Amino acid sequence: MRGQADNMRIFAFSDWRTQPIEPLYEILENIDPSPDLILYGGDDVRRFVDTTQNHFHKLAKTVDADLGFVLGNDDHPENLQHLKLQTSRVTDLHRNPLEKDGIALIGQSGDIGSTAMGYIQYPEEEATKHLETLHSKVSNDIIALVSHTPPHGTLDYAQRYESGRIGSHAVKKFASNTGPLFVLCGHVHQFGGETAHTDYSPVLNVASHDFEQSPGRIAIIDILEDGRELNLDIRHTTVKKCARDLQGVGRSLAATSSLSRLTQVGGTRVEELKDAGMATISDIAAASKAEMKSATTIPEYFIDKIQAHATAYAEQETIIRDAHKFAALRDDETVLIDIETNLEQDRVWCIGLYSYPTDEFTQLVSLDDEQSLIERFQEYLLEQRKPRLIYYAGNSFDEGRLSEAADRCNVALAELVDEWVDLCVIARETIFQPEEGHDLDAIASGLGFLFEHPNVTGLEIGGAFSTYQSEGEVPDDGWEKYLEYNRDDTLAIKHILDFMSQNGPNEETLGRIDERNSPEDRDDYGIAEAPITAETESEAVIDSSVSETQSEDTAHASEPLWAKRDPYDVIENKDPIAHWTESDPINAEASSVPLCSACGRMLVEEDERKQLTVDNESRYLCQSGCGETSSKNSGCKKDTSSSDHNSEPHSDPTQVGSTDRSSSAAKVICHDCGDLVREDRATGKLRINDGQTLWYCPTCT
Fold first, then answer.
1. Buried-state track 306-333, b at ≥16 Cβ within 10 A, e below 16
2. pLDDT digits (tens, 9 = 90+) for 151-162
3. Do 424 and 518 belong to one domain?
4. Which pLDDT score is estimated for 622?
5. pLDDT value at residue 140
């Protein structure tokens, strides 16, 4: 790409809703070279800025950088109207473009085109005018776009509150017309940590999930000037990975990040191991089993696995235990299987199968008719004469989704299968590599398997098929790449089973298996042709055009929460309060009146407020609920995962009255998977940013 600009390093993140803020300081202080610019993509800005502190300014000051941000759809305008957001280092990109080192950064806050998604919302036409206006104000030809909402069609498929694409047509149109250096977004949490390369620009989603203990996602963008060309180097990572890889971070953060790489080591065990003097992986690898047993309460069974994994890291080699467990599975009764579904996991569309008896790969595909797909699968099983089906998931994914599909289609499968085997469960007990986790790609690659499409993810495939379902939109490059991915995964399972069945790693078997499973030789196992008919393609075009029209019509049909006036009118209608200074942006000694973290109301009297504290972070809320004190739509925001958007101010839409006459227990909606579960069987977790209790079913806890 052409242009005149200096080399620049950018540190980007978004939707920092439950992640701790303090580790960001250590990460920024130890990145070399230091970032020149920090970008934040919106939501929970109030966690960073209030009357007593401005973490945005302090983070930027830590590395002598500038920081640009936009607001998210859940940043309440009345929450922010009292606060001083912008400083000499901090720029609200929605209000003011930031021109730095030859690049102009333009921002778009909030959700665009929705009628029921948060507090800051803009119709598509207003977003179009806004972006054009900002663009007209900049002098640089090279621009970068920071938008909380992704461009329509890219990293924007949602499934928590509504299923379908929630990206903005206005953002896509602007990016298509101007060709920004990159588009940085958040909003759709499940696509955080992903980059999509479009015809106009690379699109980065840097959102983090809002579940408790979800990793903090970060992107590091290096803009490299080479003559008259600008090149981008984009790397997605997490706080823990950064702390693990950087020199100089605090011992506690480094130890937590390091030890959490080990199997069976989570938060409480990290602390227990640190208290026992085992603060590094090397410490654990060097300790004897007897020492670990006497110094900790960890069961011996887990100590064996933890030490095996620590040894793999310390010696930088694969540790194999009990390889014989695989040999018993590799026989003439075994069929390997890998499936592809939509993001909601309630529609199977591709089944990859490898048969050991026939040495044949079979791929069953149906984009539009799950019934016929499952019936063909039934016929395949009959031909294989009650095989053992082996898949790789770790959570019974393939078995569970196929069983559910068979029930939907009223097809009997259970009696046609001898047994189901999740190979990942066995791999967790036997294969230890200097890698985190036991994902199929990591284990197979570590044993020498070469993937044809190493950058394709199951999330990408699920999103592509969900988009096809909802909008009839076929991927730009068709389905071939995704069918090859399915074949890759199926044959990767074969590679693991073959490798481990031949007594584990040695040069002779590794070389032989590598050759047999190279991408070139893999063409012997052909993939299916996706049944895309002319009728389907015609419907796809019609659906795509209708989708855009409906999006624009919807913006007019029902006015968003703040449609009658721009949210920034609310934010700017009072003089901002700050008890911090730019030289001291964190003022712990300030004796200011606390504000409600949900609605922004000043809580003068103690009986007006309740304090929430989680992990040393405190927030205040209106004691009797925000709805008691304001006639505006400033009540504490509840989880909108309920389909009822007209709930009373004090009702919790995650609470559903039970219709089970055998029990009077209320039912709640799982914040993760959306399933309905009895409250007495669910786990409630407090979210400090708004004081809301999030409910999780036993599976997602």
1. bbbbbbbbbeeebbbeebeebeebbeee
2. 998 888 876 666
3. yes
4. 77
5. 85
**586-602 burial code (b ≥16 CB/10 A, e <16):** ebeeeeeebbbbbbbbe
**CA separation, residue 63 to residues 13, 103, 109, 233, 236 (Å):** 16, 20, 25, 20, 20
Within 8 A by CB and 6+ apart from 681, the residues are 697, 698
Determine the average pLDDT of the residues in 22-29: 90
pLDDT digits (tens, 9 = 90+) for 121-176: 899 999 999 999 999 999 888 999 999 999 998 888 876 666 678 899 999 999 99
Helix or strand run (H / E) with residue 301:
helix 300-315
516, burial (CB in 10 Å: exposed 0-12, middle 13-18, buried 19+): middle
- Could you say which of 275, 293, 316 is where a domain stops? 316
Mean pLDDT for all residues in the chain: 80
- Rounded to whole angstroms, the Cα distance separating 545 from 244 reads 47
Residues 281 and 161 reside in one and the same domain: no
Residue entry with tokens 């620590």: 310
Cα distance between residue 598 and residue 678, in whole Å:
28
Strand residue runs (E) in 509-568: none
Q: Using CA atoms, how far apart are residues 389 and 421, in angstroms rounded to an integer?
A: 6
Q: Is there a single domain that holds both residue 203 and residue 278?
A: no
Longest dimension (CA), the chain: 78
Query: How far is CA 554 from its chain centroid?
Result: 28
Nearest residue to 336 via CA among 214, 449, 424 = 424
288 burial (CB, 10 Å; 0-12 / 13-18 / 19+) is: exposed
CA distance 473 to 341: 16
How far from each other are the two terminal CA atoms of the chain, in whole angstroms?
46
> What tokens does 451 get?
């993937």
Q: Does this model's pTM top 0.90?
A: no
> What's the per-residue H, E or C state across 428-482?
HHHEECCCCCCCHHHHHHHCCCCCCCCCCCHHHHHHHHHHHHHHCCCCCCCCHHH
Q: What is the pLDDT of residues 445-488, one digit of tens each?
A: 988 899 988 888 888 898 889 888 888 888 888 999 999 999 99
pLDDT at residue 511 tops 80: no
For 245, residues 6+ apart whose C-beta sits below 8 A from its C-beta are none
Residue partners of 454: CB distance under 8 A and separation at least 6:
441, 445
The CA distances from residue 455 to 45, 487, 628, in Å, are: 32, 15, 51
Distance CA 79, CA 121 (A): 15
Judgement on whether residues 286 and 341 belong to the same structural domain of the protein:
no
pLDDT at 390 over 90: yes
pLDDT category at 241 given cuts 50, 70, 90 is: confident
In tens, the pLDDT along 359-374 reads: 999 999 999 999 999 9
User: Tens of pLDDT along 600-643?
Assistant: 566 777 777 777 765 556 677 777 665 443 333 333 333 333 33
Cα 603 from chain centroid (whole Å): 35
**Tally of domains within the chain:** 3
- Host domain of residue 217: 8-245
What residues contact 648, with CB distance under 8 A and at least 6 apart?
Answer: none
Question: 305 and 225, same structural domain?
Answer: no
Q: What angle do CA 76, 80, 81 make, to 5 degrees?
A: 115
